[in-house]
Amino acid sequence: MDLILWRHAEADDARGSTGANDAIPDGERPLTERGRKHAAQIAEWLRGQHMKNVRVFSSPAKRALETANALGLPVKVKPQLAVGASAADLLAAVDWPDHGGAVILVGHQPALGRLASLLLAGSEADWTIKKAGVWWFTNRVRAHETQTVLRAVVNP
Question: At what angle do helices 33-47 and 62-69 cross, to 10 degrees?
């Protein structure tokens, strides 16, 4: 199974256009123009990888959905991927490592960084995944031992 962790791209800040009185609720913050550009760049790179049997899961937050939709594939919203999720929530939501094919998970920090740390180092730590960045993992068996391999880290 391939597991691609994709952090949402840059979003408008929570203050809104005229200041604190018209604050945008966190879950409704849209991508900025720069965020849309970065999401499109990473989506183009992902499409160029010619993955098979791809499933795309997203946090319900608007910024995550907009990032995921840049890929042009069907997106399934999973509440378990929302802001405040844990690394365990993310793993449970995508059936790692049992799904055949590729899973692209679009979500948030710090959960994505903690999951990357867990997969590579065996314990959770606060690792940073840049906005719109992807970390691509593969699970394989070699000499009767299950291994997790980091295939790529790509940033806009």
Answer: 40
Rounded CA separation 76/58 (Å): 6
Is residue 123 packed enough to be buried (19+ CB in 10 Å), middle (13-18) or exposed (0-12)?
exposed
| Amino acid found at 108 | H
Beta bridge partners of 148: 139
> Closest Cα to residue 105, out of 125, 85, 127?
85
Rounded (5°) CA angle 100-106-110: 115
CA distance 142 to 65: 36
The kind and range of the H/E element at 112 are helix 111-121
Q: Which domains does the chain have, with CATH numbers?
A: 2-154 (3.40.50.1240)
pLDDT tens by residue, the chain, 156 residues: 899 999 999 999 866 555 555 678 888 999 999 999 999 999 999 999 999 899 999 999 999 999 999 999 999 999 999 999 999 999 999 877 777 789 999 999 999 999 999 999 999 999 999 999 999 999 887 888 888 999 999 999
Q: Give pTM, 2 decimals.
A: 0.91
